[in-house]
UniProtKB/TrEMBL annotation:
The entry's keywords: Carboxypeptidase, Hydrolase, Metal-binding, Metalloprotease, Protease
Function: Broad specificity carboxypetidase that releases amino acids sequentially from the C-terminus, including neutral, aromatic, polar and basic residues.
Catalytic activity: Release of a C-terminal amino acid with broad specificity, except for -Pro
UniProt-recorded Gene Ontology molecular function terms: carboxypeptidase activity
EC number(s) per entry: 3.4.17.19
Domain of life: Bacteria
InterPro entries in UniProt: Peptidase_M32_Taq
SUPFAM superfamilies according to UniProt: Metalloproteases ('zincins'), catalytic domain (SSF55486)
Protein name: Metal-dependent carboxypeptidase
Amino acid sequence: MSAYDALMAHARETEALKQVLGRLGWDQETVMPAGAAPQRAEEMAALETVLHARKVDPRVSAWLAAAEPADPVAEAQLREIRREHLRATRVPADLAAAIARTTSLAQGIWAQARANDDFAAFAPTLSEVLNLRRREAEALADGGDLYDALLDDYEAGESAASLTAMFDAMRPRLVALCEAVLEKGERFSRLDGHFDEAAQLRLATETARAFGYDFDHGRIDKAVHPFSSGQGLDSRITTRTDPADPFNCLYSTIHEVGHGCYEQNVKRDFLLTPLGAGVSMGVHESQSRIYENQLGRSRAFTGWLHGRFRESFDGFGVEDPEHFYAIVNAVRPGYIRTEADEVQYNLHILMRFDLERALVGGDLEVADLEAAWNDRFAEDFALQVDRASNGVLQDVHWAVGLFGYFPTYTLGNVYAGCLFKALKQDVPEWEEALARGDATPSTGWLREAVQQHGALMTPRAVIEGATGEPISVAPLLDYLEAKFGGLYGL
């Protein structure tokens, strides 16, 4: 057996074990008994220890030195294995296990604190998580920027400096659009009534199928915080329901379907290899956001969805599809990132990006985080946060140690803007098909242009290869200004 073949056999087993660890996480967030949390933390720590040992196995270094790639796919496999091996060798095994154990426990502590609107009850746990991740960043950074070391887990090749430059270029037009729209006041009515939760889930399932989600290799479950999990032949998603707000269920589902379809559509040849998953969280988010927003909130698709609402919910009172489109896309002040409209969403992310950089860099202490959040939120959104669950406790990310993750949401929106511009040029029938509830032309283009490649290319190479243009914030901002300028008569 050649060095390359031996290395790939080792990598396939490692990737399979990663999927087992991911399944434990899925179980924890969906069906695990609450009292099982301490045992689950030990299970996850034990498996993380096994994974870490496989990543740092001295044979990996020897195989990498001896392996001779036969083609670009093999070169990419070696690139990804080398990157993971180098990062793992810098992190002590006991630290990797401690992070897995602590973040598993922290998730339940965060959930209870969120239910009680009690940040003080969560702060000690958050401090512990942050300190562990700082230690990891110090090991990885080798004297460099700690935040960049963590960001590299989610978006290889990016840095705080590169993202700051991108976000600074976006902010003036985002703020101007937001102010102009909000000055128009609440022009569109809200949905009113009780929307049966079983009917919501049936419609969510139908919508998932319309966007190409394969239920032979996936499933939908309920969770407090919607997420996707798994790869290849087992890619699962979750959603949530609110009897007063069916959009929460429908658009959470479409969003997670974007993630799930990305994983389902990676080339089968890459299954259980380092190339067998989405290349980065930014590219992943580009898929979920273009499914949810540019496609799912389009005038064409909401026209179809309006008809399905009338058939699914007794007494549904919105008679006009155009009015329904306006309701779906209404811009209103609000606290919650996941419920934010397209105009304000990225401002939520830019705030979190700044706060978590300050936390990781030591410029902001956890004890001061809630006050810093509330002050910044009032500055950016002209709203006083009324309770912790509407503020600093609304997201699970920091509880589970995902420092460096938040900016990939806005990066994903920028990528989605670039992709949508290209999609419209290449798929002239996209609107006509969506008006029939058929997303296949659009999602088929995304499958071929982005999803099938998995991690074969770097994140920026994937997007630029799909669009034929350099990445720019302009397509996203142009799209937002055209859409909401039209809705609000700007």
